[in-house]
Design brief:
single chain, 298 residues, mainly beta, Porin, 5 helices, globular, disordered N terminus
């Protein structure tokens, strides 16, 4: 009997003792829940970027003329002006060049472009130059560069001379892009352009209609938050044998961006801004100053 009384006394004491607090499932020995919440997320699981946000690594839809994979949201608009001045930078003395404001006093080839996002990762546009060449184009992103080792997009365009009434030159290419961290991006676009009419070299020859295989190469390298250096080349792998003076288009530039605006000053050996114009090659001689101005409306 005394033993039963002792057991009952111990049981009552245990039942009356306060319960131990439940352990926080987010806490670990020596680490509070607040500390766990402050651990940075895995960068491989970062949320998808909003298409309406301007990516500082890829702020424009072109390098100089070469397409990039800059995002265009559905329903978004973008407008671009291109100008390639006609005065060769190497003509005359430095004083002569300064008198012509380094070429800005001369005429040139002006381009106006409007593009629209018809769906997510899909955009279409029209580009018209002052020699009455009209390019209709479209681009579809297949893979984003930030989602893997490289990005992939399909680009298709048709050039038409005399306000798109004659000499239509369809072209198709594949855009490959790779991000260089936060410093910029590199691009390559092999493309095929058909029914490309090359002007006659002299009065005794007829214009040639050929198919051109070109490979566009471009780099954008950021040297500051809003500034970048640009390089672009479009070598043609099957340059016309009859044209001994054929020049592969090459461009250099410097770019400044601010929000949805982009301003670029460039130097090129070509006036061409459309795919067909670049496939025809650069100017016979000389280097020319120019600029691009772009504005996004989204």
């Amino acid at each position: 009997m005394p033993s039963l009384l002792a057991i009952a006394t111990v049981a009552a004491a245990l039942l009356a003792a306060p319960a131990a607090p439940a352990q926080d499932p987010t806490s670990v020995k020596g680490v509070e829940a607040e500390d766990l919440q402050s651990v940075p997320p895995d960068p491989s699981r970062r949320p998808a970027t909003d298409d309406s946000e301007v990516d500082p690594v890829e702020p424009d839809f072109v390098v100089v003329n070469l397409p990039t994979q800059a995002r265009m949201p559905r329903g978004g608009w973008a407008f671009r002006v291109t100008h390639r001045f006609a005065r060769p930078l190497g003509d005359g003395s430095l004083g002569d060049l300064a008198k012509d404001l380094f070429g800005f006093d001369s005429g040139g080839l002006i381009g106006l472009e409007l593009r629209y996002g018809i769906a997510r990762a899909t955009q279409v546009g029209i580009h018209r130059t002052s020699d009455r060449t009209v390019q209709l184009f479209g681009q579809r992103d297949v893979r984003r560069a930030e989602d893997g080792p490289f990005g992939l997009a399909v680009f298709a365009a048709v050039d038409g001379l005399d306000n798109f009434t004659e000499d239509h030159s369809p072209g198709v290419g594949v855009i490959l892009s790779r991000r260089l961290g936060e410093r910029g991006g590199a691009y390559a676009m092999p493309a095929l352009v058909a029914h490309l009419v090359t002007p006659a070299l002299d009065e005794t020859t007829d214009p040639e209609s050929t198919t051109a295989l070109v490979v566009g190469l471009g780099v954008r390298f950021r040297f500051s938050e809003n500034g970048a250096l640009l390089f672009e080349a479009t070598p043609r792998l099957n340059a016309p044998d009859s044209d001994t003076g054929f020049r592969h288009p090459v461009s250099f530039g410097i770019e400044r961006t601010l929000g949805g605006h982009a301003f670029q000053l460039n130097v090129s050996n070509s006036f061409g801004t459309t795919l067909g114009q670049r496939a025809r090659g650069g100017a016979r001689s000389g280097w020319f100053i120019g600029f691009n101005i772009a504005r996004k409306f989204y």
